[in-house]
Amino acid sequence: MKTVLSAMYGLAVDLRNRAYDRGRRAVTRAGVPVISVGNISAGGAGKTPVVAFLAEWLIARGASVAVVSRGYRRETTGTVVVSDGRGHLATPREGGDEPVMLARRLPELVVIADERRSRGCERAVTNFGAGIILLDDGFQHRAVYRDMDIVVVDANEALAEARLLPAGRLREPLSGLRRADAILLSKCQPGSDIETLRATLAGFSDAPVFATRFVPRTLRRLGEGDDLPLDTLQGLRVGAFSGIGTPEGFRRTLQEIGITPVVEQEFRDHFWYRPADMLALQKAGAAQGVQVWITTEKDATRLSDTDVAEKLGELFYLRMEVEFVDGEEEFYALIAARSGWSSGD
Questions:
Q1: Which element (helix H / strand E) includes 324?
Q2: The dihedral sign for the CA sequence 180, 332, 137, 3
Q3: I need a surface site. Which of 31, 161, 204, 277 has the fewest CB within 10 A?
Q4: How much is the pTM?
């Protein structure tokens, strides 16, 4: 049944893309450079950390940056100003967990959630003077013209075996990568066969492929802003939980920093935690002598405006950053060339 549904889904995607390719669907220009960061697969590749990385890099070089996102699984509709560039204004339920996470990480960043991305872009430029827009999860959202399309691909995904939704995780056929201006391989680990991945992608796109990985930089305690060393929890009995697209990546990162949880629990991506969920974790932790808990930054964002996590006691989260394995300077040069933006340095 899923194979049939995938075929129907693929046909719908193909018809939609053809309509844009042939100019039968309108495309709105924002009036400023737009860089889209998106996926070819559903969830888990790490596009939001890439958006944060790009925003931080651009802001450090004097650009006035706004992020426009749909705000997946938020409980509102229409335009929500998540941050006006002076700190976060919206809660995760109002603006979505990922937009709020971006706003909290970079208080000077303008962040807007809007299911009509063209309207969100207009608001960013008109009301907040954005000089460059980062379109979060924008690869399939073709109604907004972009100067550069960056596609993030999980280096651990078996692309040759990938299938369309719902049978697999592909949002569109791999041939859609021909629209990409750059492909970022994420989660490249020691031993990753980067050159084979490049060769596979070259069969679908002429875009340059850059290898990156996500590295843990610091720990933080929920509700506090101080960075803590990664070895803060060494010697303690730790419980771990997450509600993200690829929980195996979180598990691998914990191993890298020397944490072997005695209790682990996975929830679905963008999960809204309830008191009952925390109570269940607390009981499981008590049975194993858990002293502290750890989760992801995105999960911590969803928990930060509630008191449901109080049942757990001390809760920490990891802050991850993007690190290039190769081609960093070439990537920055491509941003300048494709977007028309220049730092002047």
A1: strand 315-324
A2: positive
A3: 161
A4: 0.94
